[in-house]
Structures are given as C-alpha cells and as structure tokens.
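Marked as duplicate of an earlier ticket. Keeping the data here for the record.
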Amino acid sequence: NQNKRRSLLVLVLSRMKDEVIVIGERIRITIVEIRPGKVRIGIDAPREISVHRQEVAEAIAKDPKTVVTQ
C-alpha cells in the first residue's frame, strides 16, 4: 500500500562521491557517480540477499516466475 509506505520513517543521508553507507555488518553501499538528476551506487551484499530496483522487485512480487539476470 503506497500510503502505508509513506507513513514509515525514512533515514535520509547525505554522501559524496566515493563515500560509503554501511547497513549491518554485511552490506555496503558506495556512491559511485553523481550527475544532475542521477546517482549511481554500488552495492556490496552477500549473494543470499536479493537486491533489486523497485520496479524489478514489484515485477517479481506480481509474478515470482520473473527471470532476473545478474
């Protein structure tokens, strides 16, 4: 539910290029590139943790048979 998601608190962090955000002990998010209107990030996470863009995650949720190539 879109409205329910918006009511959750969100942590907003500011980072510069090449800086890292750490989630737990096993996930690192690196700011790779910053352009006007676009940020590229690198995600280092264990293989058993699924990492997808929102639109891909939604497609998988609608149809678990959706094939995702890595």
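See parent ticket for discussion. DSSP finds two helices and three strands in the chain.
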